[in-house]
Design brief:
Chain B: Decreases the sensitivity of PDP1 to magnesium ions, and this inhibition is reversed by the polyamine spermine. Chain B: Belongs to the GcvT family. The structure holds two protein chains of two kinds. Chain A is built from 23 helices and 15 strands. By secondary structure, chain A is an alpha+beta fold. Chain A has one domain: PPM-type phosphatase domain (Phosphatase 2c, domain 1, 4-Layer Sandwich). In chain A, strands 3, 4, 5, 6, 7, 12 and 13 form a seven-stranded antiparallel sheet that branches. Chain A has a six-stranded antiparallel sheet with strand order 1-2-15-14-8-9. In chain A, strands 10-11 form a two-stranded antiparallel sheet. The longest helix of chain A is centred in the middle third of the chain and has 22 residues. In chain B, a hairpin with a 5-residue loop joins strand 27 and strand 28. In chain B, helix 5 packs across helix 8. The chains are: A alpha+beta, B alpha+beta. At the A-B interface, helix 19 of A face helix 10 and strand 19 of B.
């Protein structure tokens, strides 16, 4: 049986309804009715799948990606029907708004609301802000600082975020990581990826210096200065293991010394690939420590997308693997805001991506490669860290699972082999790198997991963040002109506009502000407290149906520095 | 813009004559036309600005017989703020001189149409000021009291009566209102044009589209004006440039600092109501809602003074863009809410326009008039704080009198340009201050409020020390002064926000400070006082001072003399203490706000003699006032010198050492009538001396005290303060200070003739002290100043200051008693008997309290032996 430790939970809870759809043996099904009252972590896998199934059959799930479920899942969802609490929520989306707005439809048990302070405390629980310190009253960095925040939908959250300043080279690294099938992989990537990138960027001499320091047991040069929220943890147990892998990497880099200056694009690509490779290797090799052994397996069998920004002066590199997104907020000359995409989603909606996958596999597989907008009919992102189920050969998978710990053996998901699995690997962690040279009108960068992008259009994101950061709510001024307006009408209009503006001032953090909009926006594009309260008070098991984990980093640029850099070049 | 077109039409219809005279043709085209009439090469007076103030000055000057006047306007007449102004003439003003100006303006405008033939749109509608709170009602009652004694009809009415006067008002949240039936509405641009018409008939030349680039000044006198159309030589220049006045003042080589700053001001115009509003409906002012509402062409015009004003033109550029300012509905929102709350019936009324009309505001909410302290002949009238129409007529009259007669017919010190110095001219200061001033237009004006912005500009070196000991601060002329010290453990927040017309919560704190002054010794930092040094190589200093000051300054070295600096009419231009430091040098101490005025007065009258030097040493000395019977002990211990009355009599000055610091100027005066000393300490020694005094004083029970204690002490002893009780219209004879005048000092002095005449004929007003008899300190409204005094039921004057006397346990008010003839209202001589044989009452916000009048202070309050000349006068004392 599953151990009830929190690590197990993290591992097991979550195929999640959207990123991966997992078949579940029907023999488990009779347990369902009994399972619900039982502690949630006992049958989390089944429960999640079940709910997602209901979500997709009994109602339209408002997310873009639906779970596609094999047809043999024909068991009854009516078992849930008597539970009024849920029944009310299982309305289609169109009615959902309606339901939230008109209380008479809600059953008595739904009629509690979070007060604004409660809402704020939920929204602000994970917020973090970093301001680049000024020296001599001058901030010479092109980054003013960043705001980040995340709002869980999964319990526990599967998103991760990282931010760090490179100490041995210039620049700042920021990233969001969206885990699936558990958060283990996202956690590992969030801890390790920046070290890989930083090491890839280091000049030969510095690498040597570091290696010598390690060799002689001297103090190591610090490579990264992390900017972490207290909730952003690093696993102590694995640090030795991770460090050794990293050290092997830089030793190879030292040996390979090409003498050429480090190209950021290449460094990013190498780091991504190397880390994924290390994750895979560590799982194959295993670890004598049973806890670590289990950990590396969980990391490898779960997956994570990554969207990482490297900012150094006017040079902005975005390395993206998967379907998180980077977006640049640009202020036009007239003060309005527009959005520039700095990443492409790696999923079925991206034709180039579909094309790429198809060219990498024999023509015979063309029809099975992408089904229901998923890789092999299962996985939504087309690139990811971990997910060895889509990378290893069947033999390797079986061997590792059999030699692995019992917990792994008992896990339905890990044992399951994707259908039509003929020519692995089907999945890569290689990022797509986009370079952008910052201009003074580029005011901010938003990195966010798909939880944000599926609820908000990037244009709205640009506007909301832009207005928040400039402190100006760029509403068109009202002019009466020749229209017939009465005092009463004008009064009503002004009152409404004031309410809209006041929502800006509740947040001290741009990311929080964005989340507030993402979750609470009504059809008019303004934050509706009632809706916000409803969305945030959804029970853990249901939250995932209405929203995904959201993780946002908003990086604010220093236009003066950027402008000055430009002038220097001219 | 609508309004503009409207008045243009009326202008053309009404003024064909004037047009011919000036040949300045108007046309609707916007291109500049050639000027057929060239500018004169010289004139006696050049007025810059063709708004309400400029035309009013021209009108009054020409009426008073000055003919050689040129008025220049950069655009067209009445094209600035005047054109946009809401046109409300309201006399309900808290400051007495402003009230008089508004009253005069009202009377002037009323007959202006008849006089000039220009329709001014004058309609007597009356005004309703509403009170949503009891405190507001009290402040209205105070205004009502001063209006009634001036003979201006006015009544405090109930909400129900208010709704009868104006049926649209929602009265559910009102506690009362004030009705002033004679307040009026005018078309402001037309009033200005009417004044211009009358002035031009009297010979004033008016030139439009002529802008003044700068004013030339030579040897401290105005010599001419440079314009874009050439130069005009002139003796007098009048800056009536409204919000452009600041920049114009700074354009010349000798800058004239006119501290004002523009703020956007919005008002709303609507279409007519379904049943158009009657043009006789009173104007409604709802200060708690921050709005005013007047009828306008069957609809309404409503504006207000928001809490978050938008200052503009801080950089001073683009001021010509006044016509193109944007409407800002979001900004107007709160005022619109207040309007609909006051008149809910207007919801369906259609909007015509939101007008953005910038107004200029000054650092203390009062307008600016008078002569520049740096350039003689340079006069200013500007900064009307959005009441240009109400004040314009009266202010123009006063300024014209000032120019023609040398001084206006009333005390305009509260409006005098010289109350400001260069320090108020910082753009940052002005920008921040006007953001506080504009909301104050509607805020409740309670006694003893202080500005919060533009603070901590001038401070004593002891500021931090005192602040750490609980000092609460007020500001005078930019200088931070201590009000009182909050003892440790008291709730500070509460104290800072006490806004009340009743007993304030610092009552006991100040009481303790007063007690300490009486029984032990207190230290008050009085560094803000203005300090001048006058010295000469020969006897010039003495000779000139003897001429300029009324008391005899030819005293032995080391003596201190209290003396007035009088004008020709014997009135106090300044009241100061002068110490004779040596045969040829004098040290002069004046009130804080005299820094600019007194300097200019002396500079203008002292001969241009290189042997004579006048120096402002205010910043060089920190002044510590040691008040109390034990001050003697503290000082003698610190200086090892005997300080008793035998060795150091009253009104004496000596340089001595205090602690380690040498050269401290010690004077045996306290400005309160209590025994004690003022120490003038070179600033680098200030902290040392303060620490020594505090350490040594411990065993004598020394403590810090503030100005509130000082005020209570001086008022209970009938000490008049210049600026508060004394002004340019008060002579020493009228305030029982004959002893400070030496009529026979062997030489003439300024004001001597007037004083001799008064001595012979008697005085027409008399400074009197009133002890409130049936006033309950805890329950009743406190007197402030400006309360009417009634003698045998008839109005005889107003109070000028008041304080609670902790010794007498009574309120003491100081004020002037006149003797108005019962029938004619003519002023008669006030005799001692007249004062003594009356039953007095003081009117505080409509409630009258019995008061006992006294011409001399209680001798029991003085513990100190005074010098012979003072003792002579104590013979009158009855108690």
């Amino acid at each position: 049986m599953l151990a009830a430790s929190c690590c197990d939970r993290r591992m097991c809870v979550c195929p999640g309804p959207r990123r991966i759809a997992i078949p579940v043996r029907s023999s488990r099904l009779p347990l369902l009715s009994d399972a619900m009252p039982a502690p949630a972590h006992l049958f989390p896998l089944i429960r999640n799948c079940e709910i997602s199934r209901i979500g997709s059959t009994a109602c339209y799930c408002h997310h873009r990606h639906l779970c596609c479920l094999p047809s043999h899942f024909a068991h009854s969802h009516f078992r849930y029907a008597p539970q009024k609490k849920f029944a009310a929520l299982y309305r289609p989306k169109e009615n959902f708004n309606h339901f939230i707005h008109t209380r008479d439809h809600a059953s008595a048990s739904q009629r509690f609301y979070l007060t604004p302070p409660q809402v704020n405390s939920i929204l602000k629980a994970n917020e973090y802000s970093f301001k680049v310190p000024e020296f001599d009253g001058k901030n010479v960095s092109s980054v003013l600082g960043f705001d980040s925040n995340q709002l869980p939908a999964n319990a526990p959250i599967e998103d991760r975020r990282s931010a760090a300043t490179c100490l041995q080279t210039r620049g700042m690294l920021l990233g969001v990581f969206d885990g699936h099938a558990g958060c283990a992989c996202a956690q590992a990537v969030s801890e390790r990826l920046f070290y890989y990138i930083a090491v890839s960027l280091l000049p030969h001499e510095t690498l040597l210096e570091i290696e010598n320091a390690v060799e002689s047991g001297r103090a190591l040069l610090p490579i990264l200065q992390w900017h972490k929220h207290p909730n952003d943890y690093f696993s102590k147990e694995a640090s030795k293991l991770y460090f050794n892998s990293l050290r092997t990497y830089w030793q190879e880099l030292i040996d390979l010394n090409s003498g050429e200056t480090t190209d950021v694009r290449e460094a990013l690509i190498n780091a991504f690939k190397r880390l994924d490779n290390d994750i895979s290797l560590e799982a194959q090799v295993g670890d004598p420590n049973s806890f670590l052994n289990y950990l590396v397996l969980r990391v490898a069998f779960s997956g994570a997308t990554a969207c990482v920004a490297h900012v150094d002066g006017v040079d902005l590199h975005i390395a993206n693997t998967g379907d998180s997104r980077a977006m640049l907020g640009v202020q036009e000359e007239d003060g309005s805001w527009s959005a520039v995409n700095l990443s492409y989603d790696h999923n079925a909606q991206n034709e180039h991506e579909v094309e790429r996958v198809k060219t990498e596999h024999p023509k015979s597989e063309e029809k099975t490669l992408v089904k229901q907008d998923r890789l092999l009919g299962l996985l939504m992102p087309f690139r990811a860290f971990g997910d060895v189920k889509f990378k290893w050969s069947i033999e390797l998978q079986k061997r590792v699972i059999e030699s692995g710990p019992d917990q792994l053996n008992d896990n339905e998901y890990t044992k399951f082999i994707p259908p039509n699995y003929h020519t692995p690997p089907y999945l890569t962690a290689e990022p797509e790198v986009i370079y952008h040279k910052l201009r003074p009108q580029d005011k901010f960068l938003v990195l966010a997991t798909d939880g944000l992008w599926e609820t908000m259009h990037r244009q709205d994101v640009a506007r909301i963040v832009g207005e928040y950061l400039t402190g100006v709510h760029h509403q068109q001024p009202i002019a009466v002109g020749g229209y017939k307006v009465t005092l009463g009408q004008m009064h009503g209009l002004l009152t409404e506009r004031r309410a809209r503006i006041s929502s800006v001032f509740e947040d001290q953090n741009a990311a929080t502000h964005l989340i507030r909009h993402a979750v609470g926006n009504n059809e008019f594009g303004t934050v509706d407290h009632e809706r916000l309260s409803k969305m945030l008070s959804l029970p853990e098991e249901l939250a995932r149906m209405y929203r995904d984990d959201i993780t946002i980093i908003v990086v604010q640029f220093n236009s003066h520095v950027i402008g000055a850099c430009q002038n220097e070049e001219l | 813009m609508f309004l503009r077109v409207l008045s243009d039409i009326q202008w053309r219809a009404a003024n064909p004559k004037w047009r011919r005279m000036t040949s300045s043709r108007r046309s609707t085209s916007t291109t500049a036309e050639p000027h057929p009439v060239s500018l004169p090469a010289q004139a006696q007076v050049v007025i810059c600005g063709g708004g309400i103030t400029g035309t009013s000055v021209a009108y009054h000057l020409s009426k008073m017989g000055w003919k050689d006047i040129v008025l220049l306007e950069q655009g067209r007449l009445a094209a600035g703020t005047t054109r946009f102004c809401a046109g409300i003439v309201s006399t309900a003003r808290p400051v007495s001189i402003e009230l008089k100006m508004a009253h005069y303006s009202n009377k002037l405008y009323q007959q202006l149409e008849q006089e000039t033939g220009v329709p001014t749109g004058y309609t007597k509608t009356g005004s309703l000021s509403l009170a949503q709170t009891q405190d507001r009602l009290i402040s209205l009652k105070r205004i009502a009291s001063s209006l009634s004694v001036m003979g201006i009809p006015c009544e405090i009415i109930t909400p129900k009566q208010a709704v009868q006067l104006h049926p649209l008002i929602n009265i559910h949240d009102l506690v009362g209102a004030m009705y002033v039936p004679e307040d009026a509405l005018v078309t402001s641009a037309n009033v200005s044009l009417a004044l211009a018409t009358a002035a031009s008939r009297n010979g004033v030349q008016i030139h439009e589209r002529t802008s003044v680039s700068h004013v030339t000044v030579q040897k401290g006198r105005v010599t001419g004006v440079e314009t874009d159309r050439g130069r005009i030589q002139c003796q007098y220049f009048v800056n009536c440039a409204g919000q452009w006045a600041y920049e114009l003042g700074h354009s010349g080589e000798v800058p004239v600092h006119i501290p004002l700053h523009a703020c956007e001001h919005f008002y709303l115009l609507t279409h007519p109501l379904a049943e158009p509003l009657s043009s006789s409906l009173p104007t409604v002012v709802d200060p708690d809602g921050r709005i005013y509402i007047r009828n306008w062409q069957g609809g309404i015009l409503s504006g207000g003074f928001e809490k978050n004003p938008k200052p503009l033109f801080t950089e001073g550029r683009n001021q010509l863009e006044i016509q193109n300012l944007q409407e800002d509905w979001d900004h107007f929102g709160p005022l619109l809410s207040a309007l609909l709350r006051r008149m809910p019936g207007l919801e369906a009324l259609q909007i015509l326009q939101l007008v953005n009309c910038p107004e200029s505001f000054t650092p203390d909410m009062r307008c600016i008039m008078g002569e520049s302290p740096t350039a003689r002949g340079y006069f200013v009238l500007a900064g009307m704080n959005s009441a240009g129409i109400s004040y314009g007529g009266g202010a123009g009259k006063y300024l014209a009198e000032w120019m023609v007669n040398g001084y206006p017919s009333d005390n305009v010190w509260p409006l005098d340009l010289k109350r400001f110095g260069t320090l108020q001219s910082s753009r940052t200061f002005l920008r921040h201050r006007v953001m506080e001033v504009m909301p104050l237009m509607c805020d409740l004006k309670v006694p003893r409020w202080d500005f919060q912005t533009g603070r901590q500009l001038r401070t004593s070196p002891l500021y931090d020390r005192l602040d750490a000991q609980g000092a609460r601060w007020m500001e005078k002329h930019g200088f931070e002064r201590v009000k009182y010290f909050v003892p440790p453990g008291k709730d500070l927040l509460d104290l800072d926000h006490s806004k009340t017309f009743y007993k304030p919560d610092w009552f006991d704190i100040v009481g303790a400070e007063v007690k300490c002054c009486k029984e032990a010794v207190c230290v008050i930092d009085m560094s803000s006082f203005t300090k001048f040094e006058i010295s000469s190589t020969g006897d010039e200093a003495l000779e000139n001072l003897q001429y300029l000051f009324s008391n005899d300054l030819d005293v032995p070295v080391g003596h201190v003399v209290h003396t007035g600096m009088l004008n020709e009419k014997g009135g106090y231009e300044n009241d100061c203490s002068i110490a004779r430091l040596s045969k040829r040098s004098f040290f002069m101490i004046s009130p804080t706000d005299q820094q600019v005025h007194c300097w200019a007065w002396l500079k203008n009258r002292l001969p241009d003699d290189s042997n004579l030097t006048l120096e402002d040493v205010t910043w060089k000395y920190t002044a510590l006032n040691l008040i109390g019977p034990r001050a003697v002990d503290v000082l003698s211990e610190l200086s090892y010198a005997p300080m008793t009355a035998e060795h150091f009599p009253s009104l004496f000055c000596k340089e001595m050492s205090v602690g380690y610091a040498n050269g401290i100027r010690v004077m045996s005066i306290t400005h309160t009538g209590e025994p004690g000393f003022v120490l003038y300490i070179p600033i680098e020694y200030a902290l040392h001396v303060y620490n020594e005094v505090m350490n040594m004083g411990q065993k004598y029970g020394i403590r810090n005290a503030g100005y509130y204690a000082l005020r209570s002490l001086r008022i209970e002893k009938f000490f008049a303060f210049w600026g508060q009780d004394l002004d340019a219209f008060t002579t020493p004879m009228e305030c029982g200070r004959e002893f400070q005048v030496k009529l026979e000092k062997g030489m003439d002095f300024v004001g001597q003739e007037a004083l001799l005449e008064q001595k012979q004929n008697g005085v027409y007003k008399r400074f009197t002290m009133f002890i409130l008899e049936d006033h309950d300190t805890d329950m009743d409204l406190w007197p402030w100043w400006g309360e009417p005094i009634f003698r045998n039921g008839r109005y005889v004057g107003k109070t000028t200051s008041s304080a609670y006397s902790y010794t007498l346990e009574r309120h003491v008010c100081l004020g002037f008693v006149h003797n108005f003839d019962e029938k004619t209202g003519e002023e008669l001589v006030v005799t001692t008997d007249f004062i003594n044989q009356g039953e007095y009452e003081i009117d505080i916000a409509g409630q009258r309290f019995q008061a006992k009048a006294k011409l001399y202070p209680f001798s029991s309050l003085f513990t100190q032996r005074r010098r012979k000349d003072e003792v002579e006068l104590s013979g009158y004392q009855t108690e």
